[in-house]
Amino acid sequence: MSDFKQSIILQENCVIDFPEEDCGICSDRTVRVDCLLETIKNYLGNLDQWIDEGITCEVLAPGGIWQEGRIRLRIEFSPEGTNTLFDARQELEGFKN
To answer: For a disulfide at 26, which of 3, 10, 39, 44, Cβ 3.0-4.6 Å?
Structure first.
């Protein structure tokens, strides 16, 4: 199982290829992240606020204090091994910020 410590939040224009035709939510084997999020919204009901601007909440981490903020649903990818393509892209995006 992959370790999500090095995970990447996928942008909406990324494409996912599932090894099986049926991933349990969509019937397509290859799907863009924005289409997958739309399918999840349709499958679970109206999640526009959960996906777009987020839901106001408070979070309590073990040993911490309550922190106010927002929570949003995202598609997260955890590469197996090293992935220089994503590493290079993240470095370039870091220079833009």
So the answer is: 39
